[in-house]
Structures are given as structure tokens and as C-alpha cells.
Amino acid sequence: MYDNSMKIEFISKSENERFARVAVAAFAAQLDPTIDELADVKTAVSEAVTNSIIHGYENNEGIVKINAYIKGKELTLVIEDTGVGIEDIKLAMQPLYTSRPDLERSGMGFTVMGTFMDSLEIQSEKNKGTRVTMKKVFKSLS
User: Fold this and answer.
1) Domain Histidine kinase/HSP90-like ATPase, which positions (predicted)?
2) Residue 136 burial by CB count (10 A; 0-12/13-18/19+): exposed, middle or buried?
3) Residues known to be catalytic
């Protein structure tokens, strides 16, 4: 089914966002990405994990899970939490919308994810959590 896969989970602490970026970047490195492609993936992961921590768990402790899959030159990332969920996904995906204006959030997380990845899908249920699935196809340098 997949050429390779990995799973990690960690406590929803903001300092673990860096760990998530590095772990996914190390996994994606086997696809021989360009520096720009790797930066795109790291930025998208950072946004998804930060959303789980700040919005999903509202800075309370929970678990963030990342599943990564490689098939050919395609990387699939699934980042999920069991936090408060998103009541209106279409509204949440609008640029500049934030459910936490008190924290001076930019409201660009989903926009950034969608810009840097080839596909973005959000599934969420109120009080059950959110799952963000992102895909990126890496261009071969050879």
C-alpha cells in the first residue's frame, strides 16, 4: 500500500511544535526534496500542530498525533487532535478568520497549509477533535 510510514504523538505543548517539524522533515528527506519543498512541508506542519495546540486544546493538555505516509513521490500527512473541534470549517478556512482574537492570531493557518501543500482536507466534529490531511508531491531532481 505505502512505501513507508511513521507515526508520532506528543503532548500539546507549544515547544513540541518544533519537534513535529523536524520529525516530519527528517521523514520527508528520503524523497530528496528541494530546500523550498522541505520548507513548505515544515511550515504546513507547524501551522497544523499550532492549530491543534492553541485552538483544538485551547492551550490545555492533550495529545497531538501525526501519521505520515510515502507512496512514490507523494507525502501524506494526517495531523489530529481530540480537542474542541471546529464548529464551522468553511468559516475557519477563510483568510484572516480566527477563533482566538484575544491571542492576536493572524487567522492564516489553513490558508498557509493550502498554499504550501498540494491538497488540504479538514474533518472536524464539535467536542471530538479535528483531523487535517495534507498531501505534497515532490518533484524529482533526477
Assistant:
1) 36-140
2) buried
3) 47, 51, 105
Total residues found in the chain within this entry: 142
Q: Residue type at 22?
A: V
**In the block, residue with C-alpha cell 493557518:** 109
| Segment 64-89, tens digit of pLDDT | 999 999 999 999 999 999 999 988 77
- Please answer whether residues 48 and 54 qualify as being in contact, where contact means their C-beta atoms are separated by less than 8 angstroms: no
Q: Give, in degrees to the nearest 5, the angle at Cα 97 between 126 and 116.
A: 95
Domain enclosing residue 66, as ranges:
4-137
Average pLDDT, the chain: 89
Tens-digit pLDDT profile for residues 83-128: 999 887 776 666 555 555 555 555 567 878 889 999 999 999 999 9
Number of domains in the chain: 1
Q: Is 142 part of any domain?
A: no
Look at the pTM and tell me if it is higher than 0.70. Answer: yes
CB of 52 within 8 A of CB of 58? no
Residue 112 lies in a domain: yes
Provide the CATH number for the domain around residue 118.
Answer: 3.30.565.10
